[in-house]
Amino acid sequence: MYAAKLHPAKRQTGQARSARPARRRLSLAAWIALAPMAATVLFAYLGTMLWTARVSLSLSRSLPTNTFAGVTQYVRLFQNDRWILSLQNLVIYGACFIAACLVIGLLLAIFIDQRVVAEGALRTVFLYPYAMSFVATGLVWQWILNPELGVQAVLRHMGFEHARFDWIVTQRFAIYTLVIATVWQASGLVMALMLAGLRGIDDEIWKAARLDGIPRWRVYASIVVPMLKTSLSTAFVLLFVMVVKLYDAVVAMTQGGPGTASEVPAKFIMDYLFNRANIGLASAASIVLLATVLAILAPFFYARSRAALKGDRA
Predict the structure, then answer these.
(1) 8 preceded by cis ω (within 30°)?
(2) Which CATH number do you get for residue 263?
(3) Which residue, 9, 10, 240, 267, shows the most beta carbons closer than 10 Å to its own?
(4) For residue 175, is it within any domain?
(5) Is the pLDDT of residue 289 over 80?
(6) Are 86 and 281 in contact (CB under 8 A)?
(7) Whole-angstrom distance between the N-terminal and C-terminal Cα of the chain?
(8) C-beta of residue 68 within 8 angstroms of C-beta of residue 57
(9) Cis before 129 (ω within 30)
(10) 311: helix, coil or strand?
(11) Mean pLDDT to the nearest integer, 151-173
């Protein structure tokens, strides 16, 4: 009877106080659930990065040592012609790979967005290569591009005696064979991201464009593509990470050859880490690669966060 006669404000205050312990328990449970992941990030990621940076400042060879050497390993690294070549190859590969994936993925998404027949089957077909490992992709394309077994052999068997498609064994073009294989694999991912963005565009835009008589290509170029900037930026980040991590396809297709024509930083690091037993130089190369990634992606994410903050304020 007494509780029923309490003032409504006092009853609400009592309920709020009783709810606080429940919220604290939920918060504690959430932190406990996050603890394993937090420990993984701290020790498996940040810890190993700091350890790698420490090793890169030492004279370590086969095993880590505590002999401090300053930036000696970094000086040796940038005096290594193979490392410089691997960086040049990565720039060429990255520019071609990202540009081709974005263009092909966007065109595939626009094609499927026309409500074509068997849309689900086409999405599966285009996205399926991404489910394959880069090793499998590399082996398949190695057979396709092999001058004795692949496209060149088929063309000559068909009567084109002088047909040549021996890029995989030609130093000038070997890096582009990696682009062909990996674009085939990754374009489906970009297609899925772009298609999700296209399906989120208001149909009223298309109705207004039809009423105004604006050509369809102009609508895509001037209105639709700028509206896909979120999907495009997400695709760019994912593709850039693939570029930096490029290793499996190189090993499966070219082994870095002919010679060192298709050498990339990840293969350089693995070779010096395991085959040449130079852990100090490999660690220095890893830190340089990490710094390059951070230098490119950090401003990108900062710009995105600033744009999102301005949008929220507006």
Answers:
(1) no
(2) 1.10.3720.10
(3) 267
(4) yes
(5) yes
(6) no
(7) 51
(8) yes
(9) no
(10) helix
(11) 89
Contacts of 176 (CB under 8 A, 6+ apart): 96, 167
| C-beta of residue 284 within 8 angstroms of C-beta of residue 74 | yes
Three-class SS of residue 114?
A: coil
**Cα of 161 vs its chain's centroid, Å:** 41
Give the residue from 261, 263, 281, 259 showing the smallest Cα distance to 272. Answer: 281
- The total domain count for the chain is 1
Q: Evaluate whether residue 29 is within a structural domain.
A: no
Q: What percentage of the chain has pLDDT greater than the value 70?
A: 90
Range scoring the smallest mean pLDDT among 64-68, 97-101, 250-254: 64-68
Token duo for residue 72: 């000696």
Any domain includes 47: no
Residue 66 contacts residue 58 (beta carbons within 8 Å): yes
Residues 6+ apart with CB under 8 A from 14: 6
* pLDDT tens per residue across span 88-115: 999 999 999 999 999 999 999 999 988 8
pTM for the whole thing?
A: 0.84
d(CA 18, CA 118): 57
Contact 228, 198 (CB under 8 A): yes
| 262 φ/ψ angles, rounded to the nearest 5 degrees | -120, 30
Nearest to 182, CA basis, from 132, 255, 256: 132
The domain in which residue 86 lies consists of 72-313
The reply to whether 291 falls in a domain is yes
